[in-house]
Specification:
By secondary structure, this protein is an all-alpha fold. The chain is built from 18 helices and no strands. The radius of gyration is 21 Å and the shape is globular. The structure holds 4-fluoro-L-phenylalanine.
């Protein structure tokens, strides 16, 4: 069944949509991944390349996804089917649903870690370290414990299911209305705290002063991948959110605000983490454990460390949850629209299946750390397949579809519905037709010929 908007619900307000789409974009990608990748790739110079990728490649694709979603009012598979009937283009949408499945399977695991660290901060057990090494060992022991990991993973997934089951404006919109402004406020307060630590300015310099010798082709590729992941692009998440938009929404300004919020949060998180890391005499290139092992050590050294830690991990949970919700919604919308399932059945069934698929990812850091295929664990494979292959490929195909198949003229008339004038249409069309496909193709070439 390919229903039109009937019964799918619409966003109640313009701000509701922008906050929900920002909630999808802002997540572990900003708070957990962005700082550690920045730390590993040279600081300020990486930030500049990342910003270029966001505005030159990410922004035009986001506008394309919103436009496809609002035009068709459908899930990614239905959208491509409607605009290119009888072709294989719906495979792009299908790939997106698959990516949502896979990303949420491991995202839920890290979301669970976040939940656990809120509890551990409240009880004080994660805020008593004398060195980052000690905090790292505590984290290592925690993620190796199968029962605890699986329990928190389950709780995180249940939270996602609970919100998505209520539908677009009952659940997602209401949650984001409250969560997003709180997130900004908490980050701002944490930034003030971090900046007033002794020695913080060294971290600010590392973060903001570009050293251009650090920019290599590899660094550019990493920045591009991070831009896709962080903006939730390439798997139809933004297409799905756009499908709940009323006709008179201005897609251009919505795109601008979502990109701005996502980028602002990432940059703010950096302004919390780097000053703190340098003030503590720690290593910015610590890697994926940065948030979970270095920060608790930082909190241990702070006055009111427990409270700061609780606040920080609540913030990370909020960010992870609003992204997890959007990942689940992509999968659920497909089953509602294309298979005619009731929302409740789709959410419960998919939530359960994604949780089960994610369990081996959760165990990848402990009892199943030796279960490897081609030298990589379950967790590594889920992340690698989805983030490094499905998202960039999906983004590239979306750009090619809008640029050449559906056509930038058709997209322009959808964008300009209800007296919106798209003054930058020529620039956007050029980016979508040439820059995006070529840039992403270069990423793949670099991967395959490395
Ligand atoms: N953008 C999210 C983050 O930065 O954590 C992750 C994500 C959510 C990726 C939704 C893709 C997606 F469709």
């Amino acid at each position: 069944m390919t229903s039109k908007n009937n019964g799918r619900g619409l966003w109640a307000s313009r701000m509701g949509f922008i906050l929900a789409a920002s909630g999808s974009a802002i997540g572990l990608g900003n708070v957990w991944k962005f700082p550690y990748i920045t730390g590993q790739n040279g600081g300020g110079a990486f930030v500049l390349v990342y910003l270029a990728c966001i505005f030159v490649i990410g922004m035009p694709i986001m506008l394309s996804e919103f436009t496809l979603g609002r035009k068709t009012q459908l899930n990614p598979v239905g959208a491509f089917k409607q605009l290119a009937p009888g072709s294989l283009w719906n495979l792009v949408g299908f790939m997106g649903v698959l990516a949502g499945f896979l990303i949420l399977s491991f995202y839920g695991v890290v979301g669970g870690w976040t939940l656990a660290y809120i509890v551990k901060s409240i009880t004080g057990s994660s805020v008593h370290f004398s060195s980052p090494k000690e905090a790292g060992e505590f984290f290592g022991a925690f993620i190796a414990n199968p029962g605890e990991i699986t329990l928190y993973h389950f709780l995180f997934m249940s939270l996602c299911v609970g919100v998505v089951i209520k539908g677009v404006h009952g659940g997602i919109e209401k949650a984001c209305d409250i969560l997003m402004p709180t997130l900004l406020l908490i980050l701002f307060l944490l930034m003030l705290r971090a900046l007033t630590l002794d020695g913080a300015m060294e971290g600010v310099a590392f973060y903001l002063k570009p050293d251009f010798s650090k920019i290599t082709p590899e660094v550019i590729l990493i920045a591009l991948g991070q831009a896709f992941f962080s903006l939730s692009l390439g798997m139809g998440a933004m297409l799905t959110y756009g499908s709940y938009l009323p006709e008179d929404e201005n897609l251009i300004s919505a795109t601008f605000y979502v990109v701005l919020f996502d980028t602002m949060i990432a940059l703010l998180v950096g302004m919390v983490i780097f000053p703190a890391v340098f003030a503590m005499g720690m290593e910015p290139a610590e890697g994926p454990s940065l948030v979970f092992s270095v920060l608790p050590a930082v909190f241990s050294e702070m006055p009111m460390g427990n409270a700061v830690s609780v606040v920080f991990f609540i913030l990370l949970l909020i960010a992870a949850l609003t992204s997890g919700i959007s990942l689940l919604e992509v999968v659920v919308a497909y089953f509602i629209d294309e298979k005619g399932w009731p929302r409740k059945k789709a959410v419960l069934a998919m939530g359960a299946i994604i949780f089960v698929i994610g369990v081996p990812s959760g165990l990848s850091f402990g009892i199943w750390s030796d279960v490897k295929l081609f030298g990589m664990t379950f967790f590594d494979h889920a992340d690698n397949i989805a983030s490094n292959y499905l998202l960039p490929l999906g983004g590239m195909m979306t750009a090619i579809f809008v640029g050449y198949i559906w056509g930038t003229d058709s997209a322009q008339s959808e964008i300009e519905r209800h007296k919106t004038r798209f003054h930058w249409v020529k620039v956007w069309a050029f980016l979508i037709r040439y820059v995006t496909p070529i840039a992403v193709a270069l990423v793949f070439l670099a991967k395959f010929f490395k």
